Amino acid sequence: xxxxxxxxxxxxxxxxxxxxxxxxxxxxxxxxxxxxxxxxxxxxxxxxxxxxxxxxxxxxxxxxxxxxxxxxxxxxxxxxxxxxxxxxxxxxxxxxxxxxxxxxxxxxxxxxxxxxxxxxxxxxxxxxxxxxxxxxxxxxxxxxxxxxxxxxxxxxxxxxxxxxxxxxxxxxxxxxxxxxxxxxxxxxxxxxxxxxxxxxxxxxxxxxxxxxxxxxxxxxxxxxxxxxxxxxxxxxxxxxxxxxxxxxxxxxxxxxxxxxxxxxxxxxxxxxxxxxxxxxxxxxxxxxxxxxxxxxxxxxxxxxxxxxxxxxxxxxxxxx
Length: 320
Prior knowledge:
This protein has a nine-stranded mixed sheet, sandwiched between helices. Strands 3-2-6-7 form a four-stranded mixed sheet. By secondary structure, it is α/β, with parallel strands linked by helices. The protein contains twelve helices and 13 strands. The protein has helices spanning about 30-45, 60-70, 120-125, 135-140, 145-160, 180-190, 200-205, 210-220, 265-275, 280-295, 305-310, 315-320; strands at about 5-10, 15-20, 25-30, 45-55, 80, 90-95, 100-105, 130-135, 165, 195-200, 225-230, 235-240, 245-250.
């Protein structure tokens, strides 16, 4: 089987996880990077995982890149910016494992990706990929003019036959207002082959009263296929090019949720591990559920390899 190649565009930041003025643990994370890392663990040598971003020349940037390489991620498309450093975020958890965030990212290297002198060469490499993945955060962190340029470049990649995958991952604080977000997402959806969205985000941004309403809106925007993630309720899938009914893929309940950070990112990774290697939608979604179910039982966006190995080592055999 030919190995599929995917480029995941996004940002990775330094993560501080803990209690202000109390015990904290330093890690790293960012939605597209989280998905890239868990995809590399889940798919192994079945998928070539390329992270697409910009990082600094500081020790933390170098240390993160080294760790991504050790995870099996190809970092040749991580551009080095000597004028900027990675962003920083703090996660605080409540007793139910739900999280709140504080961010320091307004001058991060990833924000200036499109302006990097090597960006045109990066685009040429993306043109050799089978698929390109990004999120609403990948778009939101860019200056408006850079965002428009990236959308134009993604349109070209789509016209070249690349599969475009988009997780809307709506974060209001990153946008000027809802109108700006909606306009950007409408342009993105027109290019999207597979949307991986979350019911809460869609209701908050668009006022959707049901998942069916979300599917109808995405179809009208031009999305070809969509999965709506709904936490403990599993996910719904619909092929928006046809009149086929919605399919719900249930998840196995998790008794003790520790931290929901990157649950959706991990689902996307498990799903992509299956879908890119030829699994049907329901099988791929079950793979996403299994991986996310492990991740939410641990603290932090990126959990230790040893914690995911029992599921990633058996993901394909147990899900097919």
